[in-house]
Design goal:
Length: about 270
């Protein structure tokens, strides 16, 4: 694989991916370029990651075999219009824009282009990302494997039918935000009962991390793992009852559904 990777957009998701890629050493900093209109942002990225930067998207596409569109969906059309006549013939376009379908991207380019649609998430920054991938029929198996290797460098990857991408957005793309709220709420409860906040955050976050790893490692149903913690008449089942009384499960389900709905509206 040519070591030429370009990011159009240097926002939080792009930076998370760059951090994960560099940590895994799948690309050297000098073989990554980032373009953005924000000079201060580019200076920060160059200082923190040592990658090349430019304010000109066409400079980036000229030197990049793999081009990641790391911009908001409403900016995607503008970027594609700017670069569509400048991309290399063998370039692979990787879009991480929520709600932007492969068909829409193909229509924007108005010519045969290799397109991979990906929904990653920000834990990529610490090597624990979750990315879902779909592609059009212009992308070969070898090329798709190249993209998979990039995203596996900072987490797990699943190939999915593109029609599920909006569901992926609500399930793994946006869910870190739900989890952060959950951790903060647990810590707030602990602080309310007298625990120092730094210890409360550490204990809550480690408990969530460990519980998630139990699901992934044991293969057991989450409900079964929950039952293992809930002793008859004990403290945990009392807490679980309170969560059920307050609509915790329903609130999470509805949050996911609203997120999926919004993603579909964007497309």
């Amino acid at each position: 694989m040519k070591n030429t990777l370009g990011f159009i957009g240097g926002g939080n998701m792009g930076k998370a991916m760059i951090g994960g890629i560099l940590e895994s050493k799948i690309f050297a900093p000098e073989n990554i370029m980032v373009s953005d209109l924000n000079t201060d942002l580019l200076n920060t990225i160059e200082e923190n990651y040592g990658v090349k930067t430019t304010k000109d998207n066409n400079v980036l596409v000229k030197h990049s075999q793999i081009i990641v569109l790391a911009v908001k969906p409403h900016i995607c059309d503008i970027v594609i219009k700017e670069i569509k006549d400048k991309i290399n013939e063998d370039a692979i376009i990787v879009s991480i824009a929520a709600g932007k379908s492969i068909e829409q991207i193909e229509e924007d380019f108005n010519k045969d282009v290799k397109i991979v649609r990906v929904m990653p998430n920000t834990p990529a920054l610490v090597g624990k990302g979750m990315s879902a991938i779909s592609s059009n029929n212009k992308v070969s198996e070898v090329e798709l494997e190249q993209i998979i290797n990039i995203f596996e460098s900072f987490g797990e990857v699943e190939l999915v039918d593109e029609k599920l991408m909006d569901v992926v957005t609500g399930t793994s793309g946006s869910s870190p935000a739900y989890v952060y709220i959950f951790i903060e709420a647990i810590a707030d409860g602990a602080v309310l009962e007298g625990m120092p906040r730094d210890k409360a955050y550490k204990m809550a976050a480690q408990a969530v991390l460990g519980a998630a790893q139990m699901v992934l490692t044991t293969g057991k149903h989450p409900g079964e793992l929950k039952d293992m913690v809930c002793s008859p008449g004990g403290t945990t089942i009392e807490a679980v009852k309170t969560l059920e009384d307050k609509g915790f499960r329903s609130a999470v389900i509805e949050a996911v559904r609203e997120c999926v709905k919004k993603s579909r509206e964007l497309s």
